[in-house]
TrEMBL record:
InterPro entries: EF-hand-dom_pair (IPR011992), EF_Hand_1_Ca_BS (IPR018247), EF_hand_dom (IPR002048), Recoverin (IPR028846). The keyword Calcium applies. Keywords: Calcium, Metal-binding, Repeat. Residues 66-101, 102-137, 159-194 form the EF-hand domain. It comes from Hippolais icterina (icterine warbler). GO terms for molecular function: calcium ion binding. The gene is Efcab1. This is EFCB1 protein.
């Protein structure tokens, strides 16, 4: 439903405070864009937000994000209420991290994207699922899954080698190959290129 002018002003003021990384005019633009996207969405959400399809199309056209698995996970990180639609608050606050987040915010965001089952760890299987689509061309004599398994092993070794005293492999007493947020954070602080080690879930510089 259309919001009154006063309601929009209060919403913009509130989002400017909560999103932190956008000024008031930028928040106004994002709210206007939100309204445009809601108009494109199915009516099942009664104007409260837009669905996964509109979200994915928007991130694809605006940021060139094309990986289906990654886009679904990004949707889930935005959809804090787990309602199946993106509300205006989720939209603006999510974009604040995606576009202008601090390293700390982006680490938490990327880890949440890669933690497919939400158990607080990135397992070998989750790494496998995330990296599966990143191999575009396979040698004729190699199975695609084997190539992905090799990538996972390389990523695990790289993560472990980026810091000396606390290696998640050394602390992995049951040898299940799980990566905690603390392990991920230490590795990324040592080498920021590892932030998107398991798939592109942030816009590129362009």
């Amino acid at each position: 439903a259309a919001m009154s002018r006063k309601g929009v002003k209060l919403l913009v003021d509130s989002l400017t405070r909560s999103a932190k990384h956008f000024n008031k005019s930028e928040v106004e633009c994002l709210v206007n864009l939100f309204d445009t996207l809601v108009a494109r969405a199915s009516s099942q959400f009664a104007g409260a937000g837009f669905d996964r399809t509109v979200f994915r199309d928007t991130l694809h056209s605006a940021f060139g994000m094309t990986d289906d698995v990654v886009l679904d996970r990004v949707f889930s990180t935005f959809d804090k209420g787990n309602s199946g639609c993106i509300t205006v608050v989720e939209w603006v606050e999510g974009l604040a991290v995606l576009l202008r987040g601090t390293l700390e915010e982006k680490m938490k965001y990327c880890f949440a994207v890669y933690d497919l089952n939400g158990d607080g760890y990135i397992s070998r299987e989750e790494m496998f699922q995330m990296l599966k689509n990143s191999l575009l061309i396979q040698p004729a004599d190699e199975e695609p899954d084997e190539g992905v398994k090799d990538l996972v092993e390389i990523a695990l070794k790289k993560m472990a080698s980026t810091y000396l005293l606390v290696s998640f492999l050394l602390q992995d007493y049951d040898h299940d190959g799980k990566l905690s947020f603390e392990d991920f954070e230490k590795a990324v602080r040592e080498e920021e290129l590892l932030l998107e080690a398991f798939g592109p879930c942030l816009p590129d510089i362009k």
